Amino acid sequence: MNEDKTKKEDQNQDEQSNPSSLVQKIQQLGQSNVPQAPDSNIHVLSIIGQVEGHVQLPPQNKTTKYEHLLPQLIAIEQNNKIEGLVILLNTVGGDVEAGLALSEMIASISKPTVSIVLGGGHSIGVPIAVSTDYSFIVPTATMTIHPIRLTGLVIGVPQTFEYLDKMQDRVINFVTHHSNIKEEKFKELMFEKGNLTRDIGTNVVGADAVEYGLIDEVGGVTDAMKKINELINENKEKEGQVIQ
Amino acid sequence: MILYTPLSETDIFPHSQNEFSNRHCVNYQGKMLFVEEGKDGTYSLLQLLSTDPQDFLDEKYTPGTKIR
C-alpha cells in the first residue's frame, strides 16, 4: 500500500515525461498545465449554487455549505498575510439562516471586502452581496428579490405567519443597513406583482440594482480588484496613523 | 408517468443514503477537499475548499484528480 503511494507520487512528479498521467489529466479537465504564480494577499470566496444550511441537499445539487465557509472566514480574519477578500456570487439562494450567518460574518470582518455578483445573486444572495464594504454587479447579472418561504411541514396557525414575518424583517433590516436602498423601496420590490411569472417579487438586472442603491457599482473583475487594492491601501494608512 | 401533486420530488422519491455516504470532506496535504469515493476505493476530487486563489492554479488540486 505504502509502496503504491510513493510510486504514485513519483509519477506525479515527472508528469511531463510520463505520457499516461498526462493523458489522464487531459481526460479529467481537458488541459495539461496551469501557470504558477506567487502568493496572493487577496483571497477569494466563491458562493455558488445553493446556499446549503440545516438540510443536506442531494448530490446532484451544486451547493455551498455554510459550515465550510465560516471557518475559512475566521482563518482569513486571523491570517496577517491576507489583506483583502473578494466574494464571487452566483447563487440561486437557499437557507435563510445560513445566508444571514454568512452575511453577518462577512460584514463583521475587519479586512476590506468586495463582492461581485455574476450571473445571479437571488433571494438570500442579496444580503450576502451587500454585506461587503463595496459591491459590484456585472451588467448581465440579476438579483431576484422576493418574500421568504418555507418548505416542509408548516403548522397552519397565525404564529407561523408571525415567525415568517419576523424572519423576513431580519433580511430586510440587514439589506437596508448594509446598502443604500430605502426600506420602502426594498419592500416595494419584494412584494411587487406581475414581474415574476406566478410569483411575488422583482428580478433586478445589473444597472437597475445600482440605480435602486442595492449594489454600489456596475463592474467586473478589473473594477473589483482596483477597488479592493484601494481599500487595502486606505486600511494600511489608517493602521499606520494609529501606530504613530 | 405524470404525478400531479403539491409534494416535492424528494418526498415521493427519497434519495438513497449511499448517495450521501460516498461523499466526504477530507483534509489532504493541508487542504480541505470535497471528494467522492469510487467503487474501486479511489477518491476523485470534486471541489477544493480554499480561499487562496493560488491553490486553484496548483494542478494537484484540479477537479477530477484521483487521489490514493
From TrEMBL, chain A:
InterPro entries with a match to the protein in the record: ClpP/crotonase-like_dom_sf, ClpP/TepA
Region (Disordered): 1-24
Composition-biased stretches (Basic and acidic residues): 1-11
Pfam families named in the record: CLP_protease (PF00574)
Source organism superkingdom: Bacteria
Polar residues composition-biased segments: 14-24
This protein's name: Translocation-enhancing protein TepA
Organism: Virgibacillus oceani
High-level lineage: Bacteria, Bacillati, Bacillota, Bacilli, Bacillales
TrEMBL record, chain B:
InterPro entries tied to this protein: YlzJ
Pfam families assigned: YlzJ
Stated name of the protein: Uncharacterized protein
Native organism: Virgibacillus oceani
